[in-house]
Amino acid sequence: MATLDIAKALDSIKDWQEESYVHLHKNPELSMQESETCDFIERELEKFGYKVQRIGGGVVGVLENGEGATVLFRADIDGLPVKENTGLDYASTITRTDENGNEVPAMHACGHDFHIMANLGAARVLSDNTDTWSGAHIALFQPGEETAAGAKSMVDDGLVDKLPKPDVAFGQHVLAGPMRAGQVGTHAGPILSTGASIKVTLHGKGSHGSMPHMGVDPVVLASSIVLRLQTVVSREINPFDMAVLTVGSIQAGSKSNIIPDTATLLINIRAYDMDVREQLLEGIKRVVNTECEASNCPQDPEFEVYDSYPLTDNSAEITEKVTKAFVEHFGEDRVMDCGEVSASEDFSFIPDAFGIDYCYWGFGGFEEDAQTYPNHNPAFGPVMEPTLRTGTEAAIVACMAWLKG
After folding, report:
1. Cβ distance 301 to 288 under 8 Å?
2. 327 — pLDDT class (breaks 50, 70, 90)
3. Whole domain around residue 238: which residue ranges?
4. Which has the closest alpha carbon to 376: 268, 276, 229, 232?
């Protein structure tokens, strides 16, 4: 079997990959609306000789190349309703229609355009070099990661029955740190937190602002709840367990002299342990219910849990093999233990549906000493190179660790 020269292969596709990346960056689509993006991906995969299917709003290509392992590599593809402020000459200037029918700015503020092109780049290299590997490669492009809807949508649409069962699954994410551009970071065990958002609707009793004694003020109630919720993490969670509880929005009232009927809180939680996650949810409900009772609310509060993300928990054995392959390819100075990252992903719904283990890692997007901006920031603009090349190399190297024999 021939040896794959990854550097030479990537040099040969550099212009196509960078031009395609610019196109995707300039034309992001919002979660579960990625029709143009899917059309582009499907056309490219078909050119490479992959058997392509549309599943649950996403695109999957399968390339079978003799006997051997079956490897699944997943990339998320959606953008965000964020107005880009990177200063890049290929910045997105378009708007999209959100789920409420509003025209909003759109941006690849989380780097999913890098993920798409790294996965497509790996698919092209593998299709161009079938004499260097044996097995089956599944290139999966998932919609709706930002709303935790896409992986479930693909699974619900029969993903497991429509594909050969993989032996292993991989995913990756471009990050602002701790890796710098050109570096990759792995971590065994929990690497991304479980997360969820909770909408809490509080019911008060409206009144004139000058007559508070005749109403039940949900603004005061909401304020008390926000303060009290801070003790759930600080006084109820073991200090050695990671937990985050953030109240990101309070909405109530329309005028200074009107006590409104209702108030709404939007809360977000993160944890590296499912038991801690449940403890946070229980704590939120208990605090809200108790404060509502103390305020003599005329109606019980309402709770809606949404955007629910699973824990991303890397297999130690698979992560060790991937890390070893990365060190052999990149060198020890470009591979690090990235530790646990507080962000969340729905990636693991896919390998969990197949009943297989997986490895998920990060790669850097900002150069040493450069100003960095976090994912979802309007100024999040990773440098195109070596970021794009590094993500593609990592995808190829991890897959080849299983496919080369």
Report:
1. yes
2. very high
3. 194-308
4. 268
Q: Residue 160: give its domain's CATH number.
A: 3.40.630.10
Ligand-binding site membership of 173 (annotated): yes
**Interhelix angle for 112-128 vs 35-47, to 10°?**
20
- 112 a known binding residue? yes
Same structural domain for residues 144 and 219? Answer: no
CB 37 within 8 A of CB 92: no
**Of residues 287, 279, 272, 147, the one with CA closest to residue 230:** 287
Q: Which residue has the tokens 């990854």?
A: 6
In angstroms, the first-to-last Cα distance of the chain is: 9
Q: Per this entry, what is the length of the chain?
A: 405
Quote the number of domains for the chain.
Answer: 2
User: Which is it for the CA torsion 397, 402, 403, 405, positive or negative?
Assistant: positive
- Sorting pLDDT into bands at 50, 70 and 90, what band is 34? very high
176 with 211, same domain: the answer is no
Instruction: Kindly tell me the sign of the dihedral angle through the C-alpha atoms of 146, 152, 158, 162.
Output: positive
From the list 246, 232, 242, the residue with the least C-alpha distance to 285 is 232
In a domain, 176, yes or no: yes
pLDDT at residue number 405: 58
Cα–Cα dist 344/246, whole Å: 14
Question: Is 29 known as a binding-site position?
Answer: no
Same domain for 234 and 178: no
Which residues are CB-neighbours of 278 under 8 A, at least 6 positions away? Answer: none
Contact at 8 Å (CB) between 69 and 168?
Answer: yes
Quick check: 347 and 360 in contact, CB under 8 A? yes
Given a cut of 90, whether residue 1 has pLDDT beyond it is no
Pair 274, 320 in one domain:
no
Quote the pTM value. Answer: 0.92
Whether residue 1 lies inside any domain: the answer is no
Q: Please indicate, yes or no, whether residues 246 and 172 belong to a single structural domain of this protein.
A: no
Q: Which helix (H) or strand (E) holds 120?
A: helix 112-128
Distance CA 279, CA 236 (A): 9
- 110 belongs to an annotated ligand binding site: yes
Provide the pLDDT for residue 404.
82
